[in-house]
């Protein structure tokens, strides 16, 4: 009988590949490896310990922390008992945690360390359903003596005693579970309001895991790096779903700060990252090359220019001359290969990106150096997969074809993308109205994204349907598309564009302190703070050049030529999730930003050359303060069709 829950898959893997590595964790600089059999033993013990603490079928268990084996095992242990794990973003503030715990009705929490315990203690009185907290890392916990607190070691000791007294308990609980059972609650990022709790069943997650494993020929000997939030649906499907179905190894980095170093050590064969990660990697490469010697910079620029010309065509097995192929082979030895090795991507056989649209220039950069990067499109409500790019059908401006078993259509009137599949979520927890608005009675899901299907059968996403607008000159305004083009440049960390119902497009930009700081050091430009650096006229001038390059690209697009950016401002602070400006997955909260930065937006459109701004900020220690500044506004030159024709 086929396994229909993850605890059953774990049992199967423990029997068929018991001694193969299931999960690794880097601790104090050393990789610790746990086999499938050892992982099952840990899950069994934890499940018995949770049962001894009163956890039973239907209970909700919060999981909070970085990617750690004990947190993954606790999720599977909860599912084995018929309880429902509710992973929460580890960088959530106390009040964000409070909302999710209260909304989900969480009674039990398994957390990583003291930091997460402190946040839960802060909200313990208001989170009325929370009765017990388990922590995995004992550092700093010696003086915590609350009776509802216990360590994972204590849970395991109780589990050993419970197992001895109830030898058949775990097997009976696992056999009781079925694919129709709720597997997990995953909360959306909440770009327009409070996050919604997406209810997914084992059938949802396993069907999409099995489909993607077969489609992409994912093998049991793959190595992946689990570094993205456990509360995100992608990590749940890649680090649990696909791993349990295919039997490959998941590697947990030592910390978020060491991810890139740990990536290099592991050398994964299978890697997923949202566009922001690839943007950050490209920024670090660019900054590093700017600091390199002149011969190295010349060598890098020379071969990267050649890669941009022929690299993608070679990867897609298109016709390329022998001379160009030889030059690319030489570039692989001197530049592309060492670069991939430095990034830890030498062994990678497939690279995926999703979550946000990736800039075409960034996408082509990675493919040009020989990385088989592909885009996929999905949602939490879809158990990730809606579309994926097939091999040799990879285009920078599409997100691929409908995955096997997925029906896809576009509303002809609104351009909204809809889909239907076995991965479609059961419901939004305690929100029947939102469920009805999103999912039709016959299973079609409204994505909220605007797009179209091209002549090749590929889906193109324009933007969020509600965000796509029209300028007064009748040009289409797609803010996310413009923002992604801006974020290709190393100096630009975040961008928010405005233009719907306006005479022209404007942009509000926060600089990348690492990239701009490196530039300032090379140019002997002193500064004492982020605010002072962002206000420098020379920095404005560099960003203006970037925007003019974007405008030149837009001038070549008939639908977007009229949406070129006319004015911009550099913010005096980074856009921050802690300040409510971004979601925990770094999506722009447009409604919030429109309200918070109203004076800046007005200044962009009323002809001002300077605007005063005051915003409340939250510091790392939780204190609040007001960040105020007078920030300059700069005009940008648009590119005309005649200029574009002359340049070509």
Provide structural commentary.
A 5-stranded parallel beta sheet has the order 4-3-5-6-7, sandwiched between helices. The protein starts with 5 loop residues before the first helix and ends with a helix. Helix 5 links the parallel strand 5 (108-111) and strand 6 (132-135). The protein is an alpha/beta fold. The protein contains 22 helices and 28 strands. It has 3 domains: 6-253, 3-Layer(aba) Sandwich (Rossmann fold), CATH 3.40.50; 275-464, Rossmann fold (3-Layer(aba) Sandwich), CATH 3.40.50.12780; 468-647, ANL, C-terminal domain (GMP Synthetase, Chain A, domain 3). 48% of the residues are buried.
Major sheet summary line = 5 strands, parallel
What is the domain total for the residues?
3
Quaternary structure classification: single chain
Spans of at least 5 consecutive residues with low confidence: none
**Topology, number of strands:** 28
Which range does the strand content fall in? 15-25%
Q: Please identify, by name, the CATH architecture of the largest domain.
A: 3-Layer(aba) Sandwich
Question: What's the mean pLDDT score?
Answer: 91
């Amino acid at each position: 009988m086929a396994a229909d829950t993850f605890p059953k898959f774990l049992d199967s893997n423990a029997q068929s590949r018991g001694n193969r590595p299931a999960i690794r964790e880097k601790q104090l600089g050393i990789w610790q490896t746990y086999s499938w059999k050892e992982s099952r033993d840990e899950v069994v013990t934890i499940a018995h310990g949770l049962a001894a603490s009163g956890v039973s079928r239907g209970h909700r268990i919060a999981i909070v922390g970085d990617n750690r084996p004990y947190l993954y095992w606790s999720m599977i242990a909860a599912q084995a008992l018929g309880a429902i794990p509710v992973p929460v973003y580890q960088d959530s503030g106390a009040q964000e945690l409070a909302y999710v715990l209260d909304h989900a009705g969480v009674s039990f929490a398994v957390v990583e360390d003291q930091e997460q315990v402190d946040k839960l203690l802060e909200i313990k009185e208001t989170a009325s359903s929370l009765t017990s907290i388990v922590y995995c890392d004992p550092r700093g916990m010696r003086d915590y003596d609350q009776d509802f607190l216990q360590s994972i070691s204590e849970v395991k000791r109780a589990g050993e005693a419970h197992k001895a007294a109830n030898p058949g308990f775990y097997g009976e609980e696992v056999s009781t579970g079925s694919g129709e059972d709720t597997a997990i609650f995953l909360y959306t990022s909440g770009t327009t309001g409070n996050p919604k709790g997406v209810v997914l069943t084992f059938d949802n997650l396993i069907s999409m895991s099995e489909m993607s494993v077969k489609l992409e020929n994912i093998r049991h000997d793959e190595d992946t790096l689990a570094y993205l939030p456990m509360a995100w649906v992608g990590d749940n499907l890649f680090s649990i779903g696909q791993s349990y179905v295919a039997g490959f190894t998941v590697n947990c980095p030592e910390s978020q700060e060491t991810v890139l170093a740990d990536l290099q050590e592991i050398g994964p064969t299978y890697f997923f990252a949202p566009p922001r990660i690839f943007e950050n990697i490209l920024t670090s490469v660019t900054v590093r090359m700017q600091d390199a010697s002149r011969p190295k910079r010349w060598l890098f620029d020379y071969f990267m220019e050649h890669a941009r010309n022929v690299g993608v065509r070679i990867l897609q097995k298109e016709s390329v001359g022998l001379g160009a192929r030889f030059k690319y082979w030489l570039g692989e030895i001197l530049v592309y290969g060492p670069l991939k090795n430095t990034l830890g991507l030498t062994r990678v056989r497939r690279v995926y990106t999703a979550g946000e649209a990736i800039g075409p220039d960034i996408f082509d950069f990675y493919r040009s150096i020989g990385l088989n990067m592909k885009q996929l499109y999905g949602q939490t409500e879809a158990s990730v997969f809606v579309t994926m790019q097939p091999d040799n059908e990879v285009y920078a401006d599409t997100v691929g074809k409908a995955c096997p078993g997925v029906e896809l259509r576009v509303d002809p009137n609104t351009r909204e993308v809809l889909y239907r599949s076995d991965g479609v979520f059961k419901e939004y927890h305690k929100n029947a109205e939102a469920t009805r608005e999103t999912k039709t009675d016959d299973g079609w899901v409204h994505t909220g994204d605007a797009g179209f299907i091209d002549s090749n059968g590929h889906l193109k996403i324009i933007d969020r349907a509600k965000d796509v607008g029209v300028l007064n000159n009748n040009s289409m305004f797609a803010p996310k598309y413009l923002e992604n083009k801006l974020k290709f440049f190393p100096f630009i960390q975040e961008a928010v564009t405005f233009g719907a119902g306006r005479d022209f497009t404007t942009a509000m930009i926060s600089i990348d302190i690492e990239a701009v700081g490196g530039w300032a050091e090379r140019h002997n430009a002193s500064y004492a703070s982020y605010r002072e650096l962002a206000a420098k006229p020379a920095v404005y001038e560099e960003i203006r050049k970037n925007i003019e390059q974007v405008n030149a690209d837009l001038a070549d697009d008939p639908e977007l030529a009229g949406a070129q950016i006319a004015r911009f401002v550099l913010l005096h602070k980074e856009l921050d999730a802690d300040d409510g400006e971004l979601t925990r997955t770094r999506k722009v909260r447009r409604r919030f930003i429109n309200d918070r930065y109203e004076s800046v937006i007005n200044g962009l459109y009323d002809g001002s050359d300077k605007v005063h701004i005051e915003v409340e900020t939250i510091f790392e220690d939780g204190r609040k303060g007001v960040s105020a500044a007078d920030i300059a506004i700069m005009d940008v030159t648009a590119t005309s069709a005649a200029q574009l024709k002359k340049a070509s």
